[in-house]
Write a structure and sequence with these properties.
The complex is a heterodimer of chains A (312) and B (277). By secondary structure, chain A is mainly α. In chain A, helix 8 packs across helix 9 and helix 12 packs antiparallel against helix 13. Chain A is built from 13 helices and two strands. Chain A has a two-stranded antiparallel sheet. Chain B has 277 residues and is α/β, with parallel strands linked by helices. In chain B, helix 3 packs across helix 4, helix 4 crosses helix 6 and helix 6 packs parallel to helix 7. The chains are: A mainly alpha (312), B alpha/beta (277). Chains A and B meet through helix 8 and helix 9 of A and helix 2, strand 6, helix 3 and helix 6 of B.
Amino acid sequence: MGTATETDRSGGSNRLDRRLLLERLSSYWLVGAGLFAVALFGLIVLTLVQQSIPIVSEYSLFQMMTSSNWDPAADEFGFLPAIVGTIYVTVLSMAMGTPLAILAAIYIAEYAEGRTKVLVSSFIDVLAAIPSVIFGLVGLIVVVPFVGDYLAPAVGAHSIGLGIVTVSLVMAIIVTPFMISLSVESLEALPDELRESSLGVGATKWETIRTVLLRAAGPGIFSAILLGFGRVFGATIVPAMLIGGQTAIPESPFDAGETLPTLIVNDFGELMSIPLTQSALILVGLMLLVIVWIFNFGAMLVRRRLQRRWQY
Amino acid sequence: MSNDIALRTDDLEVTYTGNREVTAVDGVSTEFAENKLTAIIGPSGCGKSTLLKALNRLHEIQPNAEITGEVYLGDEAIYDTDDPLPEIRRRVGYVPQTPTALPLSIYNNVAYGAKIHGDYSSEELDDLVESYLRKVNLWDEVKDRLDDPGAELSTGQIQRLCLARSLAVEPEVLLCDEVTSALDPISAEQVEETLEDLKEEYTIIMVTHSMDQAKRLADDVIFLYLGELVEANDTRSFFENPKHERTQEFVKGHTAVDYDDEPDEESVTDQQPVATR
């Protein structure tokens, strides 16, 4: 290696200087982009906090969360019906969706093979990519009459078709493919050695899945479920279309009701002109944001903790 | 090889029918002597791991693996049989190349298979866990932390834990897939010592890249090249007096491996350099 040719090729120290400059600059850009994302989140939270100060200074948070009377014209701001509705919808959707999601994920990751696997998992991806408003429309046409004419009478309840159960059914259908995809990912990320180790001592496939794989993929599956939780919790369009917009505490899951997001959407247009109502709705938004953030953050924490324990 | 035969293959052929068809094991007929350690050696990607897994049908978890021929465990066929697969795999245990702790406590890693196959009282289980941890020389290192996750041990310890887990279901044959290749030299030595002790009682079949390891540990050696069995002999004759030209080259360290023909299935995990070079 002659030193002469080396200097010729590199074009002297200029070239190196330029490369190093670019290197330094690119790190600034990238840090900047990252900080921008954080700043955006901070800005949103700050705006919401600042805008919800008027209502909080007027009424106590506790009072608003426990009052069931929502009548902005009469200066009554009770969130309780929306809170109850949101909890109903979230719990019912997750109770229906989670077991199905886990079983389907096990099927796809461990049992399905070849073409069937490709077919099933691509269908699930397609389902996950359908805009929620489409589910809302199909829900109106199919699920509303189903609940109103068959399901509610079958369990001896009365329903107009629109209501919490209807929303929960549709939300379960929406959120399940999402949870399946994430769970399949965490099952498939497990090393084959785990399967071989368990099968190699004579465990059956099901014993391997139940004792070893579900546990090893547990962090991923658990965070998939929590992310699903956050999705149902913040869902807006489907509840707005199907819940029936009732500002009273629902007596049964078959009743119409409201959720925190539908409270915002329904009153957004007409009542934003009243400053205190606007502030109240923004407070609802803040609550939503905080709770969804807690779910996502919790998902991350649990995942880390479990991962550290079992190292998968 | 005058001893009793624990395991025998008859014209065993494993083909992966993926995007491109690869015959990983090509018509292998051989015997594995009882209570001896047989090493399967050969260059990377020559079908060693596939052959090993075919001995307890573990290759079947890969999609697209097709097999012809037969493996006999004693006198019983393991492919053409009514015996349930888990029972075959209990009798022919398997330890993977990568030290793998199940997501369970150290205690339950050892007790895992035993709990599945039998009803043990908790005292019996305690005894069983202790005896197998002693057998793999791990007891003294872990006796105070049996409830900790298995994954917290060092890789060398995990590999011995894997051996204990496999032995705890009382297999007749133990398949070891390059069990020391992922370990540091000291851990590898400990695992080798353990294997040395174990071969008194068990039939061990071990895939290895290391000729030195085969020389140190094995009673018999089988040499595979591109899926075909080239030579099988007792270790001494194999290394001192290799009959086949290809074996002579390999033993000398001049392996003329045509890497273009390497089957995909093994190339990722199997790339450690051959130790004799």
